[in-house]
Design a protein that fits this description.
By secondary structure, the chain is mainly alpha-helical. The protein has three helices and no strands. Helix 1 (8-28) packs across helix 3 (60-87) and helix 2 (35-52) packs antiparallel against helix 3. The longest helix has 28 residues, at 60-87. The termini are far apart.
């Protein structure tokens, strides 16, 4: 078992750092922002974690991981949108 963070607070601190980096990488690679990306990417992430990777077998923990993963993708997309808004 590999624990990458020990609390929700630590998770969200890392989320903030890594979503900034991911959004910057996407922006620099000219990944366009769109509403379908903003909404579609998190939904896809949730379905992959919860259904395809069978997170539902882990009960509430699997649900939490799927929701947090979707939130991560949503945040990256939101920050990507901010990069375009503030740099144009």
């Amino acid at each position: 078992i590999h624990y990458t963070y020990s609390s929700n607070q630590e998770y969200f601190q890392k989320l903030n750092r890594y979503t900034n980096l991911d959004a910057q990488i996407l922006y620099q690679s000219k990944r366009p922002w769109s509403l379908s990306y903003q909404l579609g990417k998190p939904i896809k992430e949730f379905f992959e974690k919860f259904f395809q990777q069978e997170g539902f077998l882990d009960g509430l923990l699997g649900l939490k991981i799927a929701v947090y993963s979707a939130y991560y993708r949503y945040t990256v997309a939101r920050k990507l949108k901010e990069f375009y808004a503030y740099r144009h």
